[in-house]
Amino acid sequence: MANTRLPSAGFSITIRIAVPADASSIGRLTTAAGEAGAIVTALDVVDSDPAHVIVDLTCDTADANHADQVVDALTALDGVDVRKVSDRTFLLHLGGKIEVSSKVALRTRDELSRAYTPGVARVCQAIAENPADARRLTIKRNTVAVVSDGSAVLGLGNLGPAASLPVMEGKAALFKRFGGVDAWPVVLDTQDTDEIVQIVKAIAPAYGGINLEDIAAPRCFEIEARLREALDIPVFHDDQHGTAICVLAALTNALRVVGKQLADVRVVVSGAGAAGTAIMKLLLRQGVGDIIAYDRQGALHRDLPDLNPAWRWLAEHTNKENYAGDLPGAIRGADVFIGVSAPNLLTGEDIAGMAKDAIVFALANPDPEVDPREARKYAAVVATGRSDQPNQINNVLAFPGVFRGMLDAHAEEFTEEMAIAAARAIADVVGEDKINPTVIVPSVFDSRVAPAVAAAVRAAAQNPAATPAPAADPGPADLPEIAANASATP
């Protein structure tokens, strides 16, 4: 299925170009870049002489091949000398994105004596006598381990631990920027479930929480379940729970826009891996009318043979009419489509077959399950995971505030009540008087989001009974325990 990729800041390039010193030269550059499909974001004059002007042209492109095409278009112009092309994303990553910064100046012998030897010995002894003091007197109070084995890096697959490090660095930077949480990447050179569990258990004393990241299903379910059982600090798999929280928040406001109730809608979820399973579990707990789960084997239904335990559970608790067809057929007449799977699975015509005032969350990145421009022709509300489209559903809305709240409450586990509270807080930040088809979630830069989420999670941790009970109870509360053989999201 053909699809034209959209330019993005993720493929931004800066091109240093020498052009003749005449009035039309710079205009020809911007015109040529635009005609090649790039979005020009900046043009800076960096030097000149009587005959030439040196400029830096910065533009967003769709991918590496498109960037080459833009450069070729500029090179073909008469009198233009392309001298250097810089990939701004790679420049940003030079030397990594995070660092350790001391909270103690250590300017004098006095400060050194208290921060380190001999004064530090008294603090060590205090913690040995009362281990709970570690939360008060060490970095454990505000530090999270971002743990990955590199087996499911973004949508790129099994790239390994070293290649996962840029993502984990970015995650740590987001924790600090949006939640004030000190996080550190812990990338593991093993993909053995037992080894991962043992390693994380061994390093846990230094941390107040564990954020599992980019670990492929089905191992991610078992790893999370075993660590939750073994540790007295929260274990949170962001690919599952962060995504589910943000989707529930966005869907809450999208339903407000179209005037529908969750109990009355039929939802189709494409992708029954880690994210999709968590989304469906949370929606079922909140009393959704019906869900059809779709994955590589097709729609999950009760007559499908040889299902793994997680998919069998989904087949038994979703798809009331036992639909067994393809994805376009599944969304025909559906109220909501949620994609956490693969690009370009649907067309605008498929969306046209959905119910009146349909809601489409096409979250595959960087290319959604359906072109959002086509989807908007037929759906009332469209969201993606892209920052250059309206209604970006991004996990950064959830995890910084969730961990901020759990750390502040000295929580020992992450609970479903916290997830529901966080989703409601995100939705309510927008405000019912502000929501519309292009604003169903707050901006990731809205300074109200993380504090609101943190407060809601902290309240849920300190008084779980204050969080209203879920509207439905479809089955076991702890899906990871039955998901040991679940398939990865396609």
From TrEMBL:
GO molecular function, one term: oxidoreductase activity, acting on the CH-OH group of donors, NAD or NADP as acceptor
Positions with biased composition (Low complexity): 463-476
Range of residues in the leader sequence: none
Stretch list, region Disordered: 463-490
Malic enzyme N-terminal domain segment(s): 95-228
InterPro entries xrefs: Aminoacid_DH-like_N_sf, Malate_Decarboxylase, Malic_N_dom, Malic_N_dom_sf, Malic_NAD-bd, Malic_NAD-bd_bact_type, NAD(P)-bd_dom_sf
Residue ranges the record marks as coiled coil: none
Domain Malic enzyme NAD-binding per the UniProt entry, residue ranges: 240-462
UniProt KW keywords: Oxidoreductase
Name of the protein in question: NAD-dependent malic enzyme
